[in-house]
């Protein structure tokens, strides 16, 4: 085989598979968007007509709006705690040398490779037993705790990349100039890590907002968007559910673009 | 440049930052796991947990072949998912690391968004697409295919499709990172030594991307044995996998000890399979 032919063949395979995979990724997403404009009651083709009436129904549906509010509430709390805990863990895991470092990295990152449904079930057992002893039920708070357990390791990994590219000499310089430990953090460390922390926060928010498994186990009777949709698929759907999906996609794609901007800025600074 | 600073556990710089993670994962990950283990040795009576020690649950687990058939099916599906994901992910990751420099960012954004979007929504989208009266059959009918050409919804094939769809990004990310880290000069050296592009790929790039392939496989396998949404929604719940069985044990049968035992069996067997494969892969490399 000569070089020319080899590169041509490689290009065909690589470009072809990329296009095919992108189409594959977006098939269900575009299908949902299309079905949200179905006028009739049933989710079958051909459509009875094209209309926005299910979007109207969505904004009048108390259950859907409550689910949207619950998702947002859980995601905000989970994001703040998971990002803070993950950022501190990332600094510890990358910058410091200490006894038991391996064990710390393993413990702080373990939930990453743990099936989410099983994590949810194990935590449900835990909270049910504790709940019986101390008299509480599962609900929004236990769901938030479950999300933090699952998402903090993700935040740790994302911030760790930023910590890795960070020059510790800058901190030393600030310390030599007489800055206190807290001042170094506020004026040197945090600003330099900010792009990483910010993209970790965006990912944390999206992971929590779209989380099904853990919410399903731990939220008690509280419904979020994913569990609301899941119950909707079970009882026979209407185009209301694709309409919710489409509404949820918009902030999602905007946040991913924003996170990417921050990642690029961080890469340039690093 | 040495990045690491030695710190003792008495230093507040270390323990203040390490403590939140340690406390969180000890109280809400390790402790629940230990309790799950203890629960398997308890009894249930009238759908209520009864704190008396007993081996009844484990006798049940080891004498009913039904649980093990489902477990075998789960492992088979997870392995099939790993194989398909790696085969698809490799050219994507390779292309992303070596070509498409101009569209690099746009492609990453598109993949990330597809990855991070709620799995329930995407799985539901597949149902609408694959349904008898769904989008795929509608489009195919317009192209002149007979009615209901696409008819594999509510079979294991649909489950596998959903699993590959939801887990593929993990393989793309890990393989991409390992290819992106390969030193270009090694490949150029292979060219200088007269290797063809294909040969350089086969003897330099592929072996060096092995850590990424391995990491992606382990991650997908471990997550794959725990899927519940795909077999339920796309597979129609007809051939349940372990996660669905565990869910039913808790919800319908309200048998916590049994559910806990099945959870542990699934985890232990999954970890055992990973160790077994790494042993085999390690021996092959040592022998080569």
Question: What's the helix and strand layout?
Answer:
The complex is a heterodimer of chains A (270) and B (288).
Chain A: H1 3-35, H2 53-60, H3 62-95, E1 96-97, H4 101-109, H5 116-134, H6 140-164, H7 169-176, H8 181-209, H9 213-218, H10 225-234, H11 240-269
Helix pairs in contact in A: 1-11, 3-6, 3-8, 3-10, 6-8, 7-8, 8-11
Chain B: E1 5-6, H1 12-39, E2 43-45, E3 48-50, H2 56-63, H3 65-98, H4 104-116, H5 119-130, H6 135-142, H7 156-180, H8 184-192, H9 197-208, H10 210-224, H11 229-233, H12 242-251, H13 256-287
Antiparallel strand pairs in B: 2-3
Written description of the protein model:
The complex is a heterodimer of chains A (270) and B (288). Chain A has 270 residues and is an all-alpha fold. Chain A has one domain (62-269): MetI-like fold, CATH 1.10.3720.10. Helix content of chain A is 78%, strand content 1%. Chain A contains 11 helices and 1 strand; from the N terminus they run H-H-H-E-H-H-H-H-H-H-H-H. Chain A has helices at residues 3-35, 53-60, 62-95, 101-109, 116-134, 140-164, 169-176, 181-209, 213-218, 225-234, 240-269, and one strand at 96-97. In chain A, helix 1 (3-35) packs across helix 11 and helix 8 (181-209) runs antiparallel to helix 11. Chain B is mainly alpha-helical. Chain B has a single domain (60-287), classed as Orthogonal Bundle (MetI-like fold), CATH 1.10.3720.10. In chain B, 73% of the residues lie in helices and 3% in strands. Chain B has 13 helices and 3 strands. The longest helix of chain B is centred in the N-terminal third of the chain and has 34 residues, at 65-98. The mean pLDDT of chain B is 84.
């Amino acid at each position: 085989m000569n070089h020319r032919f080899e590169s041509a063949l490689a290009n065909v395979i690589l470009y072809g598979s990329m296009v095919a995979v992108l189409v594959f990724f977006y098939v269900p997403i575009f299908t949902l968007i299309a079905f949200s404009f179905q006028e009739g009651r049933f989710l079958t083709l051909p459509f009875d007509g094209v209309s926005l009436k299910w979007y109207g129904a969505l904004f009048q549906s108390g259950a859907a709006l409550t689910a949207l509010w619950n998702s947002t509430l859980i995601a905000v709390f989970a994001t703040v705690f998971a990002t803070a805990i993950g950022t501190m863990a990332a600094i510890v895991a990358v910058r410091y040398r200490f006894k038991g470092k391996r064990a710390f990295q393993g413990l702080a990152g373990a939930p990453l490779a743990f099936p989410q449904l099983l994590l949810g079930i194990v935590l449900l057992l835990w909270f049910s037993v504790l709940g019986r002893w101390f008299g509480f039920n599962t609900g929004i708070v236990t769901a938030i705790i479950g999300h933090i357990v699952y998402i903090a390791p993700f935040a740790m990994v994302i911030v760790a990349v930023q910590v890795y590219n960070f020059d510790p000499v800058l901190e030393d310089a600030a310390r030599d100039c007489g800055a206190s430990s807290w001042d170094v953090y506020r004026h040197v460390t945090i600003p330099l890590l900010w792009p990483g922390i910010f993209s970790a926060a965006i990912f944390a928010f999206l992971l929590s907002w779209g989380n099904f498994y853990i919410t399903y186990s731990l939220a008690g009777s509280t419904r979020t968007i994913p569990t609301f949709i899941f119950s909707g698929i079970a009882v026979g759907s209407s185009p209301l559910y694709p309409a919710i999906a489409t509404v949820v996609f918009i902030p999602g794609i905007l946040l991913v673009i924003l996170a990417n901007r921050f990642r690029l800025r961080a890469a340039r600074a690093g | 440049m040495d990045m690491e600073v030695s710190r003792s556990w008495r230093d507040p710089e270390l323990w203040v930052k390490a403590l939140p993670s340690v406390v969180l994962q000890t109280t809400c990950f390790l402790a629940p796991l230990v309790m799950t283990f203890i629960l398997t040795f308890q009894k249930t009576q009238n759908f209520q947990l009864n704190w008396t020690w007993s081996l009844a649950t484990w006798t049940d687990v080891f004498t009913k072949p039904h649980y093990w058939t489902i477990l075998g099916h789960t492992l088979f599906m997870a392995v099939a998912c790993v194989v398909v994901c790696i085969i698809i992910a490799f050219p994507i990751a390779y292309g992303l690391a070596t070509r498409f420099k101009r569209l690099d960012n746009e492609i990453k954004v598109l993949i990330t968004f597809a990855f991070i979007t709620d799995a329930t929504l995407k799985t539901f989208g597949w149902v609408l697409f694959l349904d008898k009266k769904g989008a795929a059959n509608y489009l195919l009918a317009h192209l002149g295919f007979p009615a209901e050409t696409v008819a594999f919804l509510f079979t294991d094939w649909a489950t596998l499709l959903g699993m590959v769809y939801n887990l593929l990004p993990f393989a793309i990310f890990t393989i991409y990172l390992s290819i992106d880290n390969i030193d270009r000069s090694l490949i150029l050296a292979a060219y200088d030594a007269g290797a063809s592009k294909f040969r350089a790929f086969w003897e330099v790039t592929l072996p060096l991307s092995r850590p990424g392939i391995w990491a992606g496989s382990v991650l997908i396998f471990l997550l794959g044995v725990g899927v519940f949404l795909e077999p339920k929604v796309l597979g129609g719940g007809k051939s349940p996998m372990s996660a669905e069985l565990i869910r039913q044990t808790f919800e319908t049968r309200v048998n916590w000890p049994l559910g806990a035992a099945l959870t542990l069996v699934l985890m232990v067997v999954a970890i055992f399979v990973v160790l077994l494969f790494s042993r085999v892969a390690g021996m092959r490399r040592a022998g080569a």
